[in-house]
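Could you please consider the sequence and fold following this short note?
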Amino acid sequence: MSKTFNVLFLCTGNSGRSIMSEGLLNLLGQGRFKAYSAGSKPAARPNPLALELLEKAGYDTSGMYSKSWNVFEEPGAPVMDVVITVCGNAAKEVCPIWPGHPATAHWSYDDPVGETDEEKRMAFFKVFNQIKQRIEGLVSLPDEKLEGLSLKASLQDIAQKPLA
């Protein structure tokens, strides 16, 4: 299969979990996937801890920024094959009607917060590894699992697997 799958990760602020998901899928997707991220109420900029973890993994974060999901409703925007919410708030919001009727899923991750800088760093590290675990599941799917109803079922299967 030579199709590249466009995947949009949504989180309210588009500053942490969705940014890490975008970067990890672009890093690990080996050209089969092109990832994007957005939010309903985007933050001023991505969280520096999210960017730091992506950079340590080998991803160039220079072009990453927090953006509204409205960007993907504009003429000429890429058509998504998959839309995945990664935070509880975004999953509960009324999302736009996406052109092409993409497969959708919710991959829940805790908000990476903490009282101290060390607690925040550890929380981001934990969520980063959980996202990586699910992204590795997605990129390892055989081509036949990326079509039609099989894609939706595969996304749900990945969401149900226990996270480390």
Notes: The radius of gyration is 15 Å. The longest helix spans residues 117-139. The first strand starts at residue 5 and ends at 10.
